[in-house]
Design brief:
By secondary structure, the protein is an alpha/beta fold. The chain folds into three domains: 3-102 and 287-313 and 329-335, NadA-like (Rossmann fold); 106-185, NadA-like (Rossmann fold, 3-Layer(aba) Sandwich); 193-282, Rossmann fold (3-Layer(aba) Sandwich). It has 15 helices and twelve strands. The chain has helices spanning 24-35, 47-52, 59-68, 80-89, 105-108, 112-121, 135-139, 150-155, 169-179, 198-207, 221-224, 233-242, 257-263, 292-301, 310-326, and strands at 37-42, 55-57, 73-77, 94-96, 126-130, 143-145, 163-166, 183-185, 212-215, 229-230, 247-251, 268-271. The strands form three sheets. Strands 2-1-3-4 form a four-stranded parallel β-sheet, with helices on both faces. The chain has a four-stranded parallel β-sheet with strand order 6-5-7-8. Helix 1 (24-35) packs parallel to helix 14, helix 3 (59-68) packs parallel to helix 4 (80-89) and helix 4 packs across helix 15. It is globular, with a radius of gyration of 20 Å. The structure holds 1,3-dihydroxyacetonephosphate and iron/sulfur cluster.
């Protein structure tokens, strides 16, 4: 099975070739029209990228958008596994990722060959994998889930069926607690969500006793124990609009707060702190590799580009299709979508 490749063009222009007088936003808008492109962005991208994207969403909503778009080119402002999902579901589209190095620590924590051996040791287990994994790991899985649909999908699996869950042990442990299922966990974790400090969170709650805590399920149990709400990035966004609380502590990558401020401008958001008492450690180092300059260059160079061999793509598509079939219908709360007609 051939692995995913992102070829770089030898004659590609670099950051130093960009005319400093250019208005990058204007240029990106011009190129988007010329290319018939759609820009999809995850909530963890810089605010300026979120602002010019055609659609901003969580992993599930982005997968659905990628599967449905009629645009010839998808520029994926997110991380590699998300862009791969776009290519797997929309193989006839050109899929660009502004920085080829935009990976994910969860993906890194689950090397395909080791995972294959682990699955082979447990042949009676259904393999349920979090979407934050490589195309190769998806191809070894029975069902893919995201943080938005994992609980609903696991509840559809017969009680007597053993389940192996990978790669996020914190999300897996949370799902196990929620559903009462005994999940066999792969020991992966997200470097960003593991940075939050329980001690500093308790101190912050002490300073804002009326505040509620909304947390992503990639956080360790010690953090989730303090949460009033646990959910995917879209669910967290919905929660902050609906809660009567004025102060909200946000335990996930802090770029999501950009949309929270738009959804609830009268509320105050406090990023959950790391061990040093600040949130600076919680920026995703992979997401922030994508910049306006690299987005512009990806459109000029038509690369980095996601390419996946047909056999790998078809094997990885099966569990993704199963996910889309088993997912509850899309949320009625439409995430920020400034150019809904473009896609
Ligand atoms: P969501 O699907 O909740 O947006 O999460 C994606 C992710 O990478 C969280 O770290
Ligand atoms: Fe991966 Fe964590 Fe970054 Fe999400 S926040 S993309 S799980 S490294």
């Amino acid at each position: 099975m051939q692995s995913t490749v992102i070829p770089q063009k030898a004659d590609a222009l670099g950051i130093g070739d960009i005319d400093p007088t250019l208005d990058l936003e204007d240029e990106i808008n011009r190129l988007r029209k010329e290319l018939g492109a759609v820009i999809l962005a995850h909530y963890y991208q810089d605010a300026e990228i979120q602002e010019l994207a055609d659609f901003v969403g969580d992993s599930l909503d982005l997968s659905r958008r990628a599967a449905e778009t009629k645009a010839e080119v998808i520029i994926f402002c997110g991380v590699r596994f998300m862009a791969e999902v776009a290519k797997i579901l929309s193989p006839e589209r050109i899929v660009l990722l502004p920085d080829a190095e935009a990976g994910c620590s969860l993906e890194e924590s689950c090397p395909p060959e080791a995972f294959r051996a682990f699955c082979q040791k447990h042949p009676d287990h259904l393999v349920v994998s979090y979407i934050n994994c490589s195309a190769e790991v998806k191809a070894l899985s029975d069902i893919i889930v995201t943080s938005a649909n994992a609980e609903a999908i696991i509840r559809q699996i017969p009680e007597d069926q053993s389940i192996l869950f990978a790669p996020d042990r914190h999300l897996g442990a949370y799902l196990s607690r929620k559903t009462g299922r005994d999940l066999l966990l792969w020991p992966g974790a997200c470097v960003v969500h593991e940075q939050f400090s329980e001690r500093e969170l308790i101190r912050l709650k002490g300073r804002y006793p009326e505040a509620v805590v909304s947390a992503h399920p990639e956080c360790p149990e010690a953090i989730l124990n303090h949460a009033d709400h646990i959910g995917s990035t879209s669910a967290m966004l919905k929660f902050v609009s609906e809660t009567p609380a004025h102060d909200i502590i946000v335990a996930t990558e802090p770029h999501l707060i950009h949309q929270m401020k738009k959804a609830a401008p009268d509320k105050t958001f406090h990023p959950a702190p790391g061990a040093d008492g600040t949130c600076s450690c919680a920026n995703c180092p992979f997401m922030e590799l994508n910049t306006m300059e690299k987005l512009y260059l990806s459109m000029i160079n038509m690369g980095p580009r996601i390419e996946i061999s047909d056999d790998l793509r078809l094997a990885a598509k099966k569990p993704l299709d199963r996910m889309l079939e088993m997912s509850p219908p899309a949320s009625k709360v439409t995430p920020f979508d400034p150019h809904a007609n473009v896609a």
